[in-house]
Fold:
Amino acid sequence: MIENKETHSNISSRHFSVLSLLFFLSGTAGLILQVVWMYRLGLIFGNAAYATAATLAAFFLGLAIGGWFLGNASAKFKRPLSAYGFMEIGIALTALLLIPGIEFYETHYASLVTLTNGKQSLLTVLKFAFSIILLLVPTVLMGGTFPVLAQFIGKEKRQLASRGTILYAVNTLGASIGALLAGFLLLSRYGVDATYYFTIVLIASIGFIAIFMDRLLIVNKEVTSIEKDKSASKSIKKLEGINYSELKILAFSSGLLALSAETVWTKMFAQVLQNSIYSFSAILVVFLFALGIGGLLSHILVKIFSNTKYVVLTLLLLGAISTGFSPYVFNTLTNGLGYLAPSASWLSYLAAVFKLSFLVVFFPTVIFGAIFPFLLKASPFLNQAPGKFVGRLILFNSIGSAIGPIIVGFILLDAIGIWTTIKVVAVLYGCLALFISFNFNNKPIKKWLLIPTLVIIGIVSLPNPPIVLLEKGETILKTWQSSDGVVSIVQSDKNIQMRLDNFYVLGDSRSILVEQMQGHIPLMIHPKPTKTLFLGMGTGITAGASLSHDVERVVVVELVSNVIPAAKQYFSPWVNNLFNDKRVEIIADDARNFLLGTSEKFDVIVGDLFTPWHAGTGSLYTVEHFKQAKKHLKKGGVFAQWLPLYQLTPESFEIITKTFATVFPEVTLWRGDFSGSRASIVLVGQEKGSKLNEEVIKKNIKHVIGTTQDKSNKTTEHMVGLFYLGNLKSIKKRLTNIEVNNDDFRPVEFKAPILSQQANSGKNSYIIEEKLFSLLKMLNKNLPATKDPYLSELPPNELKYVEVGFLYFRYLQLKENGNESDANKILEQINLIAPNFLDESNESL
Structure:
C-alpha cells in the first residue's frame, strides 16, 4: 500500500487504458454539466453573453482553486485513485445543489432588485457572485481530478509527460463528445432535467468504478512502494532554457488566448450562420475536438523532441499566424460573409457548418491544444510531486481561461470589434514567442527575435475584412459591436434598416405602418391601457405607437444594448418622441430576467417578433415565460405575443399557440398587415370570458386614426374586424396532440431550426401565401364571426368586416399573383358586403 507522499502507482497498460476511458467519460459528463449550467443560468440571468461569461468564470475559477489546493494535497494521498473516485462522486452530489440554488435565486431575485434599486452593474456583479457560489464546489473537485490522477500515474516523473498528455487529450476529446451529445441529442430528446440527472449518475458511476479499480490493483499487488525518483532529487530551475516562471506564464497565456480566440470566433461565425443552438454546438464540438487532437500532438512531440524551447516557440508562431489569418480564410470561404448554405437541406446545412468550422478553427486550435499539455515535459526537472506540479499548471491555465472570455466579451469587442480583437489574440501569441526568444541561451539570438517580430508586423499590417455584407445600392451608416452581436444601420434608396449579425432585420423605416400596428392593436383592445410593457424594442416604432394612446407609463425592455443608441440616432423621426417622452423608461435587459425581478403590473404587455429558431429565443415561447407575463398583468390585462409567420412552419406555429393556450384561457388572433409573404400576426391572451367591447373600440380607435388613415375620414364604422383573424377555439382540435414548449423540453428551440432549414430547402414551408390563406380560411370557417363568443358584443355592421378582412387579403394575394379573374370575383363579394370599403379613403389599409 502507498504509505507516503513519495510513492506512486505502477499500473499496466491495460489498466491505464481503463483509466483513460474513465477520464474520457469524465470529460464527456463535465461538458454536459457545463452546457446545462449555461442554459439554467441563462434563464435566470437573461443576457446570454452574461450567462456564458458567468458560467465560464465560475467553472474556470473552480478549476483553478481545485488544481491548486487538491494538487498540493495529492502528494499526501495514500491512494490517489480512490481519492479521484471520491472526487467524482463529490462532483455528482454537489451538482445537485444547482436545483435548490436556482429555486432560491428565483424566489428572492425581486427582493434583490429592490435592494439594489435595479442598478444593472451591481446586479451583474451579484449574479456573477451567485454563479460562483453555486458552482464552486463541483468545479473545485473537477479541477482536482487531473492533478490527483497525475499523482497516481507518475511512478517516474519522466512518465508524466507521456501518460499525462494522453489523459489530457482523452478528457478533452470526451468533452467534444459531450458537446455533441448535449447539443444534438440529449437535451432535445430527453429534456434538460433528465439529461442533468443522467449525467450526474454517469459521474457517480465513474467514481465508483475508479474506487473499485483501486481496490483491484491493490489486491493484484500492482501498487508497490518505490523510492523517490532520483532524477528529481535536486531542484532544477531551468528546462532547456525555460524556467519555472516562464512555465507559469505559458500556462496562463495558453488558457487566456485559446478561450479568447474561441469567444471571438463564435461572434465571427454568428455573421453567416442560422444562429441556432445547433450552429453554436457544432462550433464548440470542433473547438474541443481540435483541443483534444492538440493533446495527442503534444504526446507525439514529447516523445520525438528533446529541445522543449524550440517546440514551444514553433507552436506559438504557428498559433499566431493561423489565428491572424483566420478572418481572411473565413471571409474567403463565405464569399465575403455570405449566409451559409441558405437553401441546403438540414443535414447538408450541418455538414456545411462543420466543414467551415474545421477549415477555419481546427488547425489553430490544434496548435493551442498542444501548448499546455506539452508543458508537462518539465515535470522531471522540478522538485515537485507530479500532482502538485500539474495542479500549479492548471491553476494558472484556468485563471487565464476565466479571464480571456470576459476581456474579449465585455471589453475588446465593444472597443475594437471582431476583426481587431482576433488580431490582438494573434499578436499576443507572437509576443509570447518573442518573449521565449529573448531567453534563448545560444548566440544567434537575433535570428530568433526576427521571426516573431516579422510575424507580429505582418499580422498588424493585414487589412480588416468588411463586417457587414451589402447588396447593390446599400451603404452602411454605422455599426456597433459587442458581446450581444453586430448591430448595423444600412441605407438603401429612402429606406433605413436595422440589422443584427448581418442578416437579422430588426425593422426598417419602410415598414412604419406595420410596426405601428403592432403597438396599436393590443392597446386598442384594452379599456384603459395606462401602463404598458414592451418586451423587445428594435427600431422603437412599435413602442412609440403606444404614446398616441392615453398611457401614463411605458416600459421598454431590450436585450441587445446597442440597439437602443442605434434606434435613438437613426429612427427618432418615426418613434413618436419615444426617447424624450417622460412617460417612457427604456431598460437594457432580458425579457424574462426583467419580469423575474420586477413587482410592477401592467395593463398591456407586448412581446416582440422573436426569431423562433434563434438560440435563446425559444425560452420566450415557453409556458414559464407566459406564466410570468400573466403574473404581471393587472386584472383585465392583455398579453400580446407577435409571431413572424414568414419564419414559422405550421408545426412551429402549432407548438407556440398550444403553449400560449395552456396559460391564457381566452386567445384570439389578429393581423398586423395584409402581406402574404411577410405576415405578422399576434396571439392575444386575456382572462376567461373576455369579449371585445364595442364602446372600448370606439374610444380607442381615435388613437389609431391618423396613423393608418387620414383624420378627415369621418366614417362611423371603426372596421376593427379587418384585423381580427379568429378565435383559437376554432383550431382547438388541431392542437390536441401538439407538444408544449417549456424550460425542460424545448421543441421550439430544437425543432424550429430544423423546420426552418427544411423550409429554406423546399422540403417544408413557412406560413406564407397559400399556407397562410389556408390558416386564415380555417380560422374564418371553423368559427365564423357571427358565432364567435369573443365578438358577441359587436353589432352586425362591424362583424361583417371580419369577413371583409379575410376576402381583402385573398383579393390582394390573387392580384399580386396576376390572377385578375379570381381577384375580380373576390372584389364583387367585398362590394356586396361593404360597398364603400375600397373607396379611395381606405386604400391605405
Notes: The CA atoms of residues 251 and 397 lie 5 Å apart. Confidence is low (pLDDT under 50) at residues 1-9, 223-239, 708-714.
